[in-house]
Amino acid sequence: MSIDRVILFIGPPGSGKGTLSQECVQKLGWTQVSTGDLCRKHIAKQTEIGKSIDFAIKSGKLVSDGLISQMVFDWFKKGQQQSDVVILDGYPRTVNQARDFNALADQLGDAAQVVVAKFVIDDDVVVDRLVNRYICKNKSCQRVYSLKPTSSFVPANDMMCDACGSELIKRKDDTADAIKERLKVYHLHENDLLSHYEDAGYEIREFKSDLPIDQLFTEFKERLGVSL
Ligand code: ADP
Predict the structure, then answer these.
(1) CATH architecture of 5-121+185-223
(2) pTM above the 0.85 mark?
(3) Cβ neighbours of residue 172 under 8 Å, at least 6 residues apart?
(4) pLDDT, tens digit, for every residue of 82-110?
(5) What does DSSP say about strands 144-146 and 133-136: parallel, antiparallel, or unpaired?
(6) Under DSSP, is residue 17 helix (H, G, I), strand (E, B) or coil?
(7) Distance, CA of 109 to chain centre
(8) In Å, how far are 52, 61, 62, 191 from 196, measured between CA atoms?
(9) Is 167 left (phi over 0), alpha (psi -120 to 50) or beta?
């Protein structure tokens, strides 16, 4: 299928990029690719790449630009997108990755429009979200839950995924130290990355992501002119 739009989700860990992606996949039929998920699949399968990135992921550091860009290129090459809109969740995260992605976008054809969506949230809200976060153990599901009683993402059955019934687990990088490191790394690159897109003439569409997910989803659709 040819790609009309690639939407880049740029935002700190825990800013709801994955959750909003899930909404777009389920309700709009879009395709999402998350570089974090691609990394975790390598680790689960214990591939050579997986073994080499395990430590960086656990400690909240970035994987090298070259490896990450290659994963994204391979994903597009395999033609895994099942819709004309693709969300890139968590990529590019550095200016080098953005340059790599420009080269890839050129190959996707003239018709593909690149949209930059930026998500904003306070660091202390992120920490509260991530310490309560659990994910589905099934690597082809990886649905996200919260055990915070006031959250709308509490699983219906204790510690089981509503979607596929697999066990819920804690991500290895959702520890206090790794969360702190991930936030630090995000803030280190954020300005340069956004300036790269601004300088290239892109409009940055900014979303406050401490809203309930249905409100965020509605605002997102409105601002992107999605009529469904
Ligand atoms: P989060 O954004 O919540 O930290 P992700 O699931 O997007 O979680 O990413 C988890 C980890 O995967 C990151 O901390 C990093 O180690 C690695 N990773 C994911 N995307 C990238 C990327 N674009 N560049 C470098 N490393 C990445």
Answers:
(1) 3-Layer(aba) Sandwich (3.40)
(2) yes
(3) 57, 58, 178
(4) 889 999 999 999 999 999 999 888 887 76
(5) antiparallel
(6) helix
(7) 23
(8) 29, 22, 19, 8
(9) beta
Q: How far apart are the first and last CA of the chain?
A: 20
Residue that the structure tokens 């300005």 belong to: 191
Structure tokens at 196: 């790269």
Does the C-beta of 133 come closer than 6 Å to ligand 1?
no
Q: Is the CB of 186 under 6 A from ligand 1?
A: no
Q: What are the tens digits of pLDDT across the range 135-156?
A: 999 988 888 899 999 888 999 9
Ligand 1 pocket member 68 (CB < 6 A): yes
Q: Please provide residue 146's backbone torsions phi and psi, each rounded to the nearest 5 degrees.
A: -130, 140
Sorted by where each begins, the domain ranges of the chain are 5-121+185-223
Q: In what order do the strands lie in the sheet with 133-136?
A: 144-146, 133-136, 168-169
Q: Which residue, judged by its Cα, is nearest atom 5 of ligand 1?
A: 36
Q: What is the CA radius of gyration of the chain?
A: 17
